[in-house]
Amino acid sequence: MEERHDHHRRPARALAAMALAALLGTAACGAPGPSASAAGRQPSPRPSTPQASQALPAPDQKIPGDPARLAAALKGTSAALNAAIDAWPKTGKPPRDVELLALHQQRVYRYTARHPELASRAFARLPSGLAAQAKDNTAAIRELLSLAHPVKPSATFKVQPAPPAAELLGHFKKAERRFGVEWEVLAAVMLAETKFGRVKSDSHVGAQGPMQFMPGTWKAYGLGGDVQNPRDAIMGAANYLRASGAPRDYRRALYAYNHSRAYVNAILLHARQMKRDPRNYYAYYNWQVFVITTAGERRLTGP
C-alpha cells in the first residue's frame, strides 16, 4: 500500500463517501459472492454516518469479472476502507462501514486468488502501491486455499465474536517485547488460523484455541496458560516461534509452526502488508470466516 501522507487531507469521512460513490458505480458485473450461513453470525454494528451507509457495498456485492471494472472496484474499496479505518477510534466494535468494506475487499481477493489471469490484467491498471498490496493479498489467499480441506455441507462449526482489535494488538506488541517476534507476524498467524479468534472449533487434526496449538506443543510452550485465552495463546505462539528460530529465521520458525511452505509464504505476505501500513491490521481484523465445503464456499461470520 502507498505511504500515508497526513497533511492537507480532506476529512476522512468525506474521502470515504467519495470513494464509496465510485465503488458502487463500478462494481456492477461479475459472479456473485457466496451466501453466508445464518449460524454463527455476529450482529452488525450501527452505521458510522448516514452518508457512508447509503453507499456501502452489500455483503454479497457482485465482484466484477472485467479487468477494468475490477481494478476500479478494488481502488475504490481500498480508498474507502482506509478512510473509514482512519475515522474509526479503534475502540469497541468496528463501525459498519469498516466491516462491510473489509468484507468486500476480502471477497475481491478471494475472487482474484481463483482467477489469476483476470487478476494480473486488473492489477496492471492499479497504482504501484495498491498493485503490490493486491498481489501480496491474492498470493497469500491462494496459498492458504491450497491447504483447505473441503468438508461436507452439513458440517457444523463453532464461531464467536473476535476480541476487540485494540486488545489483541496490545497482546501482540507485549509478546513482541518479551520474545522479539514481530507483532505483525503474530497477527498474521492469528489471521490465518482463526480470523483473530472467530473460529472456536478445533481443527481437523485437533489443534486448539485462537492460535491453533496441538496439545503436546501447548504443553511444552504454553507457559502454563489457557490455550483458549487470546493473551495466553499469543504469548505461547511467540514463545514457540522464538524457540523455533524467530526472529533470526522466520521461515524456519513458521515452518515448525505449520509444516507447509504455502503457509509460511502466506504468513510473511500478510505480515509484510501490515508492516507497510498498520491500517492493514485493522482491515485484516475485519476479514471474516469462510469454509470450503464439497458443495462450494460458505461464509460463517460477518454482516
Task: Describe this entry's structure for a reader.
The two termini are 26 Å apart. β1 (290-293) and β2 (296-299) form a beta hairpin. With 303 residues, this protein is an all-alpha fold. Mean pLDDT is 87; it is low at 1-53. Strands 1-2 form a two-stranded antiparallel sheet. It is globular, with a radius of gyration of 19 Å. It is 54% helix and 3% strand. α1 packs antiparallel against α3, α3 packs antiparallel against α4 and α7 packs parallel to α10 (230-243). The protein is built from 13 helices and two strands, in the order αααααααααααααββ.
Q: Pairing-aware structural class of the strands and helices?
A: mainly alpha
The CA-CA distance between the termini, in Å, is 26 Å
Tally of individual helices:
13
Any idea what the shape is? globular
Strand arrangement in the largest pleated sheet: 1-2
Quick overview:
By secondary structure, the chain is mostly helical. It is built from 13 helices and two strands. The longest helix is centred in the N-terminal third of the chain and has 21 residues, at 67-87.
Structure characteristics:
303 residues, mainly alpha, 13 helices, 2 strands, 54% helix, disordered N terminus
Secondary structure topology:
Blueprint: H1 12-26, H2 50-53, H3 67-87, H4 96-114, H5 116-123, H6 128-145, H7 165-179, H8 183-194, H9 215-221, H10 230-243, H11 250-257, H12 261-276, H13 279-285, E1 290-293, E2 296-299
Antiparallel strand pairs: 1-2
